Structure to design on (197 residues):
């Protein structure tokens, strides 16, 4: 076997090892995105479970504000449905965008509920509502941290699949870019939900 043939075989072997390594790195990064969304999903489910309890506790004080209470539950159900769709395929751009929109609608309806508390001092003073509000605030913070971890994982993956020469492997095996979770573009919807009961 000639030296030239050995060099060609060594180069071919290096190319195969590089391709396998690049493919495995992209798979690992894609799995990291799924794991990061799993952490968001856990916190969102906790929030979705807290909201009906909060609405039920507020119901006795806000009997004539039925539309607001129903809007919160409807928004919660839409957000939960969107979350389940993303959980089945994390990183899919359309699902992530739909989840972000549903979460913004939920935040808006929760904001309306909490705004009502200013008009009802007895609602503000209720111990159960205060405790649920504190749990919801804590959960919102955890959701924020989980979203940041998700977006970091998406950034790492998108960078890896878009850089040359890994781009060749990404295109060959259809590794599409993932979508980060973004805040809405509307200035009104960008306002933080204030939980003050």
């Amino acid at each position: 076997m000639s030296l030239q043939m050995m060099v060609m075989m060594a180069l071919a072997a290096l190319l195969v090892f590089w391709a396998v390594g690049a493919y495995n790195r992209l798979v690992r990064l894609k799995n990291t995105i799924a794991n990061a969304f799993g952490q968001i999903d856990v916190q969102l489910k906790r929030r979705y479970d807290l909201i009906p309890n909060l609405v039920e506790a507020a119901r006795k004080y806000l009997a004539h504000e039925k539309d607001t209470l129903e809007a919160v539950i409807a928004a919660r159900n839409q957000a939960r449905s969107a979350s389940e769709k993303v959980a089945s395929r994390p990183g899919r751009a359309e699902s992530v965008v739909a989840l972000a929109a549903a979460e913004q609608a939920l935040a808006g309806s929760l904001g309306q509920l909490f705004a009502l508390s200013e008009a009802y001092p007895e609602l503000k003073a209720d111990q159960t509502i205060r405790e649920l509000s504190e749990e919801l605030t804590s959960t919102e913070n955890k959701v924020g941290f989980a979203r940041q971890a998700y977006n970091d994982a998406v950034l790492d993956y998108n960078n890896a699949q878009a850089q040359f020469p890994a781009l060749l492997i990404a295109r060959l095996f259809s590794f599409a870019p993932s979508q980060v979770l973004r805040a809405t573009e509307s200035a009104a919807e960008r306002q933080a939900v204030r939980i003050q009961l």
Summary: The two ends are 82 Å apart (CA to CA). Residues 42-197 form a domain with the de novo design (two linked rop proteins) fold (CATH 1.20.1440.20).
